[in-house]
Design goal:
The complex is a heterodimer of chains A (83) and B (139). Chain A is 22% helix and 30% strand. Chain A has 83 residues and is α+β, with helices and mostly antiparallel strands. Chain A has a domain at 27-60. In chain A, the strands form 2 sheets. Chain A has a 5-stranded mixed sheet, with helices on one face. In chain A, strands 3-6 form a two-stranded antiparallel sheet. In chain A, a hairpin with a 2-residue loop joins strand 4 (52-55) and strand 5 (58-60). The relative contact order of chain B is 0.26. In chain B, strands 3, 4, 6, 8 and 9 form a 5-stranded antiparallel sheet that branches. In chain B, strands 1-5-7-2 form a 4-stranded mixed sheet. Chain B has one domain (3-131): Molybdopterin biosynthesis MoaE subunit (Aldehyde Oxidoreductase, domain 3), CATH 3.90.1170.40. In chain B, helix 2 runs antiparallel to helix 3. Chain B has helices spanning 13-18, 53-68, 99-116, and strands spanning 3-7, 27-34, 38-39, 42-51, 73-79, 81-84, 88-96, 119-125, 129-131. Classes of the chains: A alpha+beta (83), B alpha+beta (139). At the A-B interface, loops of A face strand 4, helix 2, helix 3 and strand 8 of B.
Chain lengths: 83, 139
């Protein structure tokens, strides 16, 4: 089970600051993780193409593979708007 | 050593400016981003900022460290929480031996912050509430 932090409108849309998705694989790409999130939470699916995945507080490209046997901090980062 | 923070209390511009003052530096450039009322026809009443705080601070510290490796000093602070019109949302200050580097580095830091640091605004406008960064007909 992956725990994924939510922020901004994604947090508001799901009324949760964290979601979880079930995984059985040992490795997945960021794109595959986003696909699992889209399936489990269809309400935010259309927002995911513009949303980046951060693993251990670092942005990950969609093609990058993540080792899921180790413990990580996952977060969905929608387009930022600070400043 | 850079001073980097996300704060939920008002930004004290004078206090942050003084962190940059040093006989080594002949030029200090500061940028203060404040809550603006009008964006074309949209009237903003207030803004709430939220952040992925740990990641935001880590990124800001990395950005500041790169600039400080050139011999400058950096102060970067972003406010979170509910801000009224004219309140400071962000302070970026760069002190350098000469003005040219200070101007360039200050602008580069605010540009990069706006593009990459995980901070979001929710704008309370006269007509409705809008999330920053969301390109959506409903927004």
């Amino acid at each position: 089970m992956l725990q994924i932090k939510l922020f901004a409108y994604l947090q508001e849309m799901l009324a949760a600051d964290e979601i979880s998705v079930a995984v059985t694989e040992k490795t997945l790409t960021a794109a595959q993780i986003k696909q699992l999130i889209a399936q489990a939470y269809p309400k935010i699916a259309s927002y995911l193409p513009n949303t980046r995945l951060a693993v251990d507080q670092v942005f990950i490209n969609d093609a990058q593979t993540i080792d899921l046997t180790a413990r990580h901090e996952f977060a969905l980062i929608p387009p930022v708007s600070g400043g | 050593m850079a001073y980097v923070a996300i704060t939920d209390t008002p930004i004290d511009v004078t206090e942050l400016y003084h962190k940059l003052v040093d006989p080594k530096f002949g030029g200090i450039v500061t940028f203060v981003g404040i809550v603006r009322e009008w964006t074309d026809a949209i009237q903003t009443k207030s803004i709430t900022y939220t952040a992925y705080q740990e990641m935001a601070v880590k990124q800001m510290a990395q950005m500041a460290a790169k600039v400080e490796a050139t011999g400058s000093r950096v102060v970067m602070v972003h406010r979170i929480g509910h801000l009224e019109l004219t309140e400071a949302a962000v302070f970026i200050g760069v002190a350098a031996p000469h003005r040219k580097a200070a101007f360039q580095q200050c602008e580069a830091l605010i540009d990069e912050l706006k593009q990459t640091v995980p901070i979001w605004k929710e704008e309370f406008d006269a007509d409705k509430t809008r999330w920053g960064g969301l390109e959506d007909a409903a927004n």
